[in-house]
Design a protein that fits this description.
Shape: globular
Distance between the termini: 49 Å
Largest sheet: 7 strands, parallel
Bound molecules: calcium ion
Helix content: 25-40%
Radius of gyration: 24 Å
């Protein structure tokens, strides 16, 4: 791309430009000669400096682009560009309203686990429940074991341990689980049920009253099956205990009915994965358009992925609704900078071989394409990893960019619809929440015709505008929230929950 932001001048200078070497699809070319060490500009941002003189018409590949230093976190514009969009009224969907006011888009029995040790038993129990019990409860969509690698062999009191602990707790409270939770514990693990839910819990029918943390609801009373309890004699008795509790909860969930809910009840998590250079010009701008529609309709939209917004922190702090929101964003970026530094790397550790093959030279270019998923409205809140969302509007939910970790943390925040854009292609899906997948290119949409829900590649080929695809996405979100299945649901593509644990393992 040009190293000049003056569009007219650039157009004049590049008239009649000829390629002097083959440029792969999605990659950049120099519109005019770029001198060594001169800035290379895309999205009106310096994405790097030329490592050698680049002639006009040459392929600008990643080895020619030197990464600029990260912007420091001081002297940022604070709440200078907070735009409040006009309301959008009249859009509804059919959802499952919960006692705490949240709304589910699916009706799922979740089995929470306190430790990986129980995963095999839970997996067997889920299989038996699906075969033996679920057919009797036709209003329940699925049974899901919330298995994870945490729970024991971990420094449970380390400051960072609160992240995986609250993530598991808050996932159990996801609106798609209807306020019901069945917890399977081993017994001797570090993450004891009382630590996971320091609230009133039923332990084999007995309630243990303790103080309620602010983020749990008083209506939430998980039932706990402990495998090491003396009453369990052999494997079959464990399965019987889990199935007995599951049957009671299925009966409650089966009474849930879809009711008309305002679009404001949506909690949409957006992220990208397997990105390419088209992500930032087709799919992500269309997501940004849909984000604006959702925010205008009063919904909550979360965007995340710290390393993919870090280079645009000045754009985000400017869009903060208040100085406090900007300060919270800076706090999360600072925490993540230190986290990466402890590991001996920086934000440039993000970008994959696939990203580069798809034309993204470095993390700055990737971030500029990623950040547009947030649309244009004011940012009204910030969540730390694993925290539960309790407000409307556009929210920055700080998570790693790793697809399955970001998805897991957005589930914990209370997401009930997930939008996922991809250029390289990933069959990503989650068991707990429908995932709408958006292709950045026609070629991917055609080749993966039964995996991609929306083709934003039409924007690049001139067959649709960003607004067209944004509206298509908005309407599909409402339809999927009302029960329409996504391709990932159709094929039952379900990635594992992957917890973010910045604390030590013992
Ligand atoms: Ca991602």
């Amino acid at each position: 791309m040009a190293n000049d932001t003056n569009q007219e001048q650039t157009q004049e200078q590049t008239r009649g430009l000829r390629l002097i070497e083959a440029v792969p699809q999605g990659h950049k070319l120099a519109l005019r000669q770029i001198e060594k060490d001169q800035a290379i500009t895309r999205y009106n941002v310096t994405i790097g400096y030329a490592s050698e003189t680049i002639a006009a018409g040459r392929w600008v590949h990643e080895n020619l682009v030197q990464l600029p230093p990260a912007r420091t976190l001081d002297q940022l514009p604070i709440a200078t560009r907070a735009i409040h969009l006009p309301p959008l009224e009249g859009y509804t969907f059919q959802g499952y309203r919960n006692v705490d006011g949240s709304v589910g888009t699916r009706n799922i029995l979740a089995i929470t686990t306190t430790v990986q040790c129980v995963a095999g038993v839970v997996e067997c129990a889920v299989k038996r429940i699906k075969e033996g019990l679920l057919p009797r409860f036709p209003n329940v969509d699925d049974v899901v074991g919330l298995e994870h690698s945490y729970g024991c062999g971990v420094a449970i009191d380390a400051p960072g341990a609160q992240i995986p602990i609250r993530t598991v707790r808050n996932i159990s409270l996801n609106p798609n689980f209807g306020g019901q939770a069945l917890v399977v514990s081993l017994g001797c693990e570090k993450m004891q049920p009382s630590r996971l839910f320091p609230a009133s819990v039923k332990l084999m029918g007995t309630k243990i009253p303790t103080s309620l943390p602010a983020e749990t609801t008083s209506a939430f009373e998980p039932t706990i099956v402990c495998l090491q309890d003396a009453q369990h004699v052999g494997f079959e008795s464990m399965i019987t205990s889990i199935m007995h509790s599951a049957e009671q909860q299925l009966a409650i969930l089966n009474q849930r009915q879809r009711v008309t809910c305002a679009a404001a009840d949506l909690v949409v998590g957006v992220q990208c994965g397997g990105s390419d250079a088209f992500s930032g010009v087709t799919a992500n701008p269309a997501v940004g358009f849909a984000t604006d529609l959702l925010v205008r309709a009063g919904a909550s939209v979360m965007f995340s992925e710290v390393t993919e917004v870090r280079d645009g922190i000045d754009q985000l702090t400017a869009r903060a609704a208040t100085p406090e929101v900007a300060a919270a964003m800076i706090r999360e970026m600072d925490w993540y900078d230190l986290y990466l530094k402890r590991g001996g790397v920086d934000r440039s550790a993000n970008t994959t071989p696939g990203n580069k093959k798809g034309g993204l030279s470095n993390i700055v270019e990737k971030a500029m394409g990623s950040i547009v998923k947030s649309g244009s409205s004011a940012i009204s809140g910030v969540l730390a990893p694993g925290e539960k969302l309790a407000q409307k509007g556009l929210i920055y939910a700080a998570t790693p960019a790793s697809d399955f970790i970001c998805g897991t943390l957005q589930l914990a925040a209370g997401m009930n619809i997930h939008i996922f854009t991809t250029g390289r292609g990933t069959p990503y899906g989650l068991a707990a929440v429908p995932v709408i997948k958006v292709a950045t290119r026609n070629e991917l949409a055609e080749r993966w015709h039964d995996l991609m829900d929306i083709n934003a590649g039409k924007i690049a080929s001139g067959d649709a505008s960003i607004d067209d695809i944004g509206w298509e996405m908005f309407h599909l979100i409402l339809a999927v929230a009302s029960g329409k299945k996504t391709w990932a649901e159709y094929w039952k593509l379900q990635n594992a929950l992957v917890l973010f644990n910045p604390a030590p393992i013992t």
